[in-house]
Specification:
- The chain is α/β, with parallel strands linked by helices.
- It has two domains: 166 residues, HAD superfamily/HAD-like (Rossmann fold, 3-Layer(aba) Sandwich); 106 residues, Hypothetical Protein, Haloacid Dehalogenase-like Hydrolase, Chain: A, domain 2 (2-Layer Sandwich), CATH 3.30.1240.10.
- The protein is built from ten helices and 14 strands.
- The strands form three sheets. Strands 8-7-6-9-11-10 form a six-stranded mixed β-sheet, sandwiched between helices.
- The longest helix has 15 residues.
- The two termini are 14 Å apart.
Amino acid sequence: MHMIKLVLTDMDNTLLPFGCERVSPRALDAIREVRAAGVEFGPATGRDAQELLRFFGGSDSAFQTGILSNGKKVYLDGQLKHVSYIDNAALQRLADYVGGYEGCFVTAYPFKTDASNPAWCIGATAEEVAPYARDFRFAPTLADAVPEDKLIAATVACPLGQDVLEKIKARGMELCPEFDIVQPVARWCDVVPHGLNKGTALPLLLDSMGITADEVLFFGDAENDLAIMHAVPNSVAVANATPEAAAAARYHIGRCDEDGVAKALEELACATREGRTPRFMLEG
């Protein structure tokens, strides 16, 4: 087996439970430990930098390298190596369709952002937006139409249950073939340029680092992790992963809310120093 040179991890429900404000102290210590052992660390997440700053307590040291915004941003050593934008006209078509479902709406996020995580909620009321702004920590502005600004991200909110959300996803992609719509957590989907995901962004990062997919270890839990799980031989699912993510992963560890990733990183650091395979990569 190739020695691991890069660890990438999803955030929500993988490194930290959805809704938590901060990565746990144990996870922060484990990240420092694995980097001290000579292994690079970074997120592969739908979240953007301003959200990661909150998760990591105001420090950007843990995401100098990584895949952000579901592959639309790729960073190496603090330098933005690649960026992709959301198609504004296509997003307007999607917003028009999604708005036909009561309480459902599209949110658009500007490329130029700040710590408040500003976002436009299209065709929604303040009452509809409020629980999502609270849970997903963004600063909403109500808008009748998608703005002309450069957009780095977009999402779909749906309070009507999973069956309705599945219909919105399927029909939304038919009406807007410019997009893929993937679900990281309940009631919420990410809208990404068609064919772009964590997995397709990975080669851009690997080429910049001069390493191969065999030297990457990835932790994930949900639908938006499947592409990168298929792209790397060393994929790991937390115990709370969706059935699809659990089936796609080669290895399996403990739950997110029990610091499963932190424990795995501690073992990886120890194994790297000792020149052996981590135990969780022997157990499967």
